[in-house]
Amino acid sequence: MTYSIAQAAERSGLSIDTLRYYERIGLVDPPARDSGGRRTYSDEDLGWLVFLTRLRTTGMPIRMMREYAQLRHRGDATTSRRKQMLYEHRTSVRERIAELQSCLDVLEYKITHYEQIESTFVEGITVEGITA
């Protein structure tokens, strides 16, 4: 199946401008064109776009994504280097998750603390609105 640039943008969650930018910087191979010269994307193209989106969401710099895309373009001979890049990036993602978990723990603590204060405050008020 083929998709227009608008459909590819919608399905991948990227903007049309981002798709064109990714093509311009070499993250995405130039897509096929229809008889009118309009870009058409395949299911394989969409799969690659989803993968790129995941890499970007995890914080991989564009520079590294470009290197990965160039290696991918060279084929199976680059599998070891691509795997190594993903191992290294996975380590940084795990570190970021741990950092975020620590921040979440602090937020949870503060929320619980404020709920306890509010609970104590509400329990200390009588029906007439006078503090006991």
**C-alpha-based Rg, rounded:** 25 Å
How many strands appear in the DSSP assignment? 3
Distance from N terminus to C terminus (CA atoms, Å) equals 72 Å
What is the H-and-E element order?
EHHEEHHH
Largest sheet geometry = 3 strands, antiparallel
Shape: elongated
Query: If you average the pLDDT, what whole number results?
Result: 92
Q: Judging by the overall fold, what is the CATH architecture of the largest domain?
A: Orthogonal Bundle
Number of helices: 5
CATH class of the largest domain: Mainly Alpha
Widest sheet: strand ordering: 1-3-2
Report on this model:
- By secondary structure, the protein is mostly helical.
- The chain has two domains: 1-60, Multidrug-efflux Transporter Regulator, Chain: A, Domain 2 (Orthogonal Bundle), CATH 1.10.1660; 75-132.
- It has five helices and three strands.
- The chain has helices at 5-12, 16-24, 43-57, 62-74, 79-123, and strands spanning 2-3, 32-33, 39-42.
- It has a three-stranded antiparallel beta sheet with strand order 1-3-2.
- α4 packs antiparallel against α5.
- The longest helix is centred in the C-terminal third of the chain and has 45 residues, at 79-123.
- It is elongated, with a radius of gyration of 25 Å.
- The chain starts with a strand and ends in a 9-residue tail after the last helix.
List keywords for this structure.
mainly alpha; DNA-bd_dom_put_sf; 132 residues; 6% strand; 3 strands; 2 domains; three-stranded antiparallel β-sheet; elongated; 68% helix; Multidrug-efflux Transporter Regulator, Chain: A, Domain 2; DNA-binding
